[in-house]
What does this fold into?
Amino acid sequence: MMALNLRLLFVALAVFLCGFRTSQAQVSREYQIKAAFLYNFAQFTEWPTNAFANDHAPIVIGVLGADPFGRALEETVKGEAIQGHPLIIQHYHRADEIKTCHILFISQSENRYMEEIVRSLKAKPILTVADADGPVTAQVIIRFIVENNKVHFRINQQAAVQAHLVLSSRLLRVGEATPSNGRAP
Amino acid sequence: MALAFGAFAQTNEVNTPVELKRLSLEDLLNQDVTVVSRRAEKLSEAPSAVQVITSEDIQRSGATSLPEALRLAPNLEVAQVNSHDWAISARGFNNTLANKLLVMIDGRTVYTPLDAGVFWDVQNVLLEDIDRIEVVSGPGGSLWGANAVNGVINIVTKSAKDTQGLMLEGGGGSLLQDFGAVRYGGGNGTNLFFRVYAQRFDRNDTVFPNGDDADDSWDMSQGGFRVDWYSSDMNTLTVQGDAYSGSEAATNGPTFVDGQNMLARWTHTISDTSDLTVQTYFDRTWRQIPDSFAEDLETYDLDIQHRFALAGRQSITWGAGYRLMDDDVQNSATIAFLPPKRNMQLFSGFVQDEIALVPDRLQLTLGTKLEHNDFSGFEVQPSARLAWTPDERQTVWGAVSRAVRSPSRVDSDLRTPGTPPFLLAGNPDFDAETVLAYEAGYRVRPLDRLSLSLAGYYNEYNDLRSVDSLTPTNFIIGNGFKGQTWGFELSGNYQVTDNWRLRGGYTYLNKLLWSHRPGVLPSVREGNDPENQVLIQSILDLPAHFQFDAVGRYVDTLHNPHVPSYVAFDLRLAWWYKGKVEVSIIGQNLWDNQHPEFGAAATRQEIPRSVFGKVAWWF
It folds into this structure.
């Protein structure tokens, strides 16, 4: 009898657990960390001189697709400048909206179109950063991965060279440089 | 519970975007992602002998099963007994019925109260789903409870969020005849994710010493799902389950197994320093072994854990749990459990206090677990751990703990033969086996690319299981043995170049058992352990999208019964096509034609050299 009651308790608990309310999602810590990484990428990347209209032209960090950062990315770059270039954020819905952009964060919402996006940007000096964890990540330059509850990133150096970008050795050392086809962790 | 792991934790995290951007790249890499698992441990600071096998370590090793993956932990003893049975332990007492290790898969204890051991043949996880395996050698009783006497294995699978899209894999070869798996992950792209999977394999016979097939081939089919719902920043709900069915050939007819399990876990974050987790699961496992016994075990478990900060410098974690195990055995002429059917209840509670004596430098962790089981009543398992972190690159730690191995049905209910007169009988008065463990360790990262860990221990065991003679033809299970072990475990991880990583370790074990009681038979069942073990894994990325990996291991002689020392190595060559298709060929146990790893020469089986190929697609 006691066992039966316990089984009922388990069923009741399972129902209870499935029924709790949803509330407005806040920006996760994961994306606060990823925002800080994007800011770091800007510091450790050298663009060709023609990527900037002049010495004070901004470094544009673009977010393509659904923005997971909330206000975290804005707060991260607010008031920051790198070698005289202020940092600004732009949002894009589609790849063909991209005009001037230096770092492009490709949201998970765009995973399915990754190949097309990368193809359309080919040879432009844009540091592409994919948020996809899977192995389906085309020729993006940097790929965020979450492993053991930490944010890591992997660098496809070949893709960086094709985009005429020079990544500092420090970035290469910290990012796990892998062959462009390296598997997800 | 998986979540309890982080109770070793210590955090000094920065929390705002402005603070985060001031961190160096290296420090950013060290930031924990979720508030919940912030307690997930920082390996370099953990005051215990913990080793982590990562997803990459497993994939690159060519491992085809969970026990093979566990071979990658230098602090475990892993011996393959035949095609489907394994002996796995830490710090000694290894046996197919090894009973001093606690094993959990995503927080679900995979433990049979029948013999306090693990049936490894039915612990199949899709290896692609594993995020990491945490292996603690040494007692974990104060947090984890009974059976965490010599170690804890905690298998953690990836969130469904990290396994999106379609994956197909398949292949086959000599020992692993054929296998296939399919997995699909989907979701709403923002906060609700799921995956479903199915896998199947057929494994061939191992061989007898003379090279004849041992007729122990087997097959297993398994499917399952996992749903992760990040309903808000404060709440996460995970629901997962698996079902499996398989058969294992034998000369006297096949063993059949099947089972189902389902788990729900809700984690609620109250604040940065406080959270609450509620977890419940159901697990049913059934097996029928010809001429031996059949067992149907249903386990119902509920656990609650709460953490909060106290007076700034203290973090308290406490929890309570209830488990009901409904065990139904069908007896045979050779073996019986009396009574055949038994309901067992386990009540447990624990509390742990992490005290920052000197913030970020000196941390004291005091904890105890109190359990009540149906066999031996109340059991107390306290521990004290001290960790000194002079700088971010090194930690010195020490610990004293008491842990128990609570009685199982083998100890209490066993009868052989299955009908009177019995030759051997279980003992309802069997007490828990206890250990008092003294440990110390040092972790250091002398170079950015190199991390090393050394842990030493001295363990004193009391009331170990014995077979006591009442008359020359009548024996009873008793607590007649005492024992002591000492040893050390050295392990390391070295990123030699950007493309080449080495990891591995060396362990030394010295074990002594004795009895002062008359009439106590030498207990061969209490484990057969190598004095020395070495493991090396090499992970190498080659140009043109090739990967070349190797695992080598040396296991010293086992003495009772005698098993010769052996060297074994596995090789893997893989090629990636556009990051979507992986083609690999893997050779296992390549050193010799065949070698034994466990058991007496007259009856044991040996593990032959084997090769298989594998193709995997990610869509």
In short: Chain B has a mean pLDDT of 89.
